[in-house]
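In this section we walk through a basic example: taking a raw amino acid sequence and producing a predicted 3D structure, encoded as discrete structure tokens. The instruction is simple. Fold the sequence below.
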Amino acid sequence: MSVTPQKMDILRFKFEGLQVIEASAGTGKTWTLAMLYLRLLLGAGPGDQKLMPPQILVMTFTEAATQELRDRIRRRIGEAVAVFRQLPLAADAQDDADLRALRDARPREGWLADARHLEATAQWMDEAAIHTIHGWCSRMLRQHAFDSVSLFQQERVEDPKALLQDVVRDYWRRWFYPADAAALRAAPELPKTPDKLLEKVAPMLARLDRAPGVGLTETPQEPDHWFAEVRVWSDRFEVAQRAAREAWRADIDAIESSLIKAMKDKVLKNNIYQAPSHEKYLRLMRDWCDGASLVADDIKRFSQAKIDASKAAAAKLWPQHEAYRLLDAVVDCGPAPSIEPLLAHVARSLREALAQRKARLAQFDFSDLLQRLYTALHDDDRGAALARRLRELYPVALVDEFQDTDPWQYGALSCIYRDPHPTPASLVMIGDPKQAIYRFRGADLATYLSAREDAAGIHTLTGNFRSTKGLVDAVNHIFDRAKPLLGEVGYAKVEACKAVEPLRDEKGSALPAMTVWQSRDAGAQKAADARAELALGFATQIVAMLNAKRMLPSDVAVLVRTGKDAQLIRKALSDRGVRSVYLSDRDSVYATDEAMDLWYILRAVAEPRSTTALRAALSTRCFAHSFEDLDRLFADETRFEQEAECFARWQLIWQKQGLLAMLYAVLHEQHIPARLQADTDLGERRLTNLLHLGDLLQKASLQLQGEAAVVRFLAEQLRDRPEDEGAAQLRLETDAGLVKVITMHKSKGLQYPVVFVPFAHEFRPASKGDVDEDDTQRLAEDIRLLYVAFTRAERALFVGAATRNGDFPSKQGQPWPKGALSQLLGRTSTDDLSA
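The resulting token sequence is shown next.
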């Protein structure tokens, strides 16, 4: 069903069936959610019913976002009560024009009753159904355990990767241990360990879990059949190879002499038969005679069929030999059987075994929650009853950030709220498809577009309350031109609705809203060279603008793609005396140097009589001994024994007062904070990491028995580095007014007075491990990522641009820029950046 989008009208919005609200950056999604919530409390629900907070389901992706929504709605209810009572609002309250319009649309004689009703609903806000998507699924599976065929009590898998590793080792023991050794040796693509096998099938496992019903239509062949095919091929290949190898080896000098002469005489014009190539190829054949392996193309090069096909007339002059014809037999064997059928069986088996293992242990992980609820709702026997109960429990669902949905989530929600149903209800999906940048988390933009097609109404938010008019116009100009690149996502122009003060120069004149700084080199450059030049240029300009008092350090955000980009710009800023902090949504504190240092220290505290452990701990960065000092320390038995006594004393503190008390004692006695703070601007980062690790390990130690278990736990985290664990994500080291360096992904939903995007021209190739992703999909997501970056600024935006090598390969005979910025600019060659 195709519905014409219409401008959002809060006061006339109808909660009927599936409704889509499409926002743009800065157009007030949270404000809209809060106003819709107020209308539902006042009787705008399906069938004109007044709803209470426990009946209005609000979902978003993170715990932080749920808390922000809860606080914003609670505050908005309080402001609405004041407006209905015709009382003055607090000084820090939002403009009350929208609330007055809501009040004035209702009968005047009922304002006091409305105020009392809102006051009553405010008392229910602690019971409000505001959840993360996964949190709500978990709650529904528990509360409706009979209908969803779920256990009442389940626990979350602490380490899903460890469980999967156990399953793949079981698979390895079952299928690979009994396998024919010759077949195993004959399959060069076959992973050599269980961990390598898991790594190989990881993309396939991700695809199986990406949507309902994927990969379940046919059962792959069992590995025994594949090993048998490999063995048959291997036997045939070895017989042919042995005969050809013996013939070549028996007459190798004569063969090489005649070949060299023919090559020098250029009997065949193909460059593979000409110097200097022929020397390399003859050397490969000599190595092959000595037992080395060769790929099919190397063997085929000297086969009789290849020679005959090169030049019919000249081939008659080519020296004849039986070895060439025997190579034909080797080539005719073809390549080894593809490993894909085996990997398909591995992926299918691991998925089923993992599900069985979790069921037996009464455990689940995040991906299971959505899948289990989806499966329960689509069950032929119980699904309809469960959908009806959830619809009655929550007549309206407001789902934020819906552009990051996936087939499991939408499949479950549409089953509950999609008509026909006897009970009136509504699902309101709020999102901005231009900000769909989380494909690596499983978000599926195609699912959002499908939901958009199913919607009974599509509403757009077109007023920008974040940026200056100049910035809004600049973003409109860039992305309105890019409509064809955005495809079905599209782009709707927005209007500046707030008088935001622009950045000004020393004379008080407004600076341009958007400034582009280009590399001095007009042609293509190495990626590293362009990045280095832009990092230095941007750092110098930021310092100049700070010195000119045009902005404060706390006003500045530098947006980058990767941690390496962040390191580059932070070093350039540090070299110029500007301190910065780095925020990323993916870096784990367990991946830092401090985590490894702390492991050495904890091991020594747990084993204070181990000379090896003590030496390793004293050599860490935390103790900051020079090589000369360490040499003297290790040679002085008295001094070394004193250090050992310190570790023994710290062990007693650990045993009596806990790990965190022990860590504080180490930090204090060794003066580590003062020493780190004196060590450039990275000292604060390192100290924050140590304290963060202390908090995490203190919590973990409450579930572990003894110091050795904690040391082992930290070793496991160092090895596996659980990046997706929210508690382990790097913390901000300071609240001081510093320049913020932040990844584009992390910046989504945030805003900053002045934004710098120094490497806007950069791009990454399509992921090799994901066969579902081609370069077109990669480019589309990169364009959306640039949209996120360009729309974070309130007062000014500065963009860096260069042409890097590899940006302009041809596609179907036409230049096809790989970079999102090059695509947005409509570039056609490496030297047209300035134009």
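Looking at the output, two observations stand out. The mean pLDDT is 84. The longest strand covers residues 793-801. In the next section we compare this with other chains.
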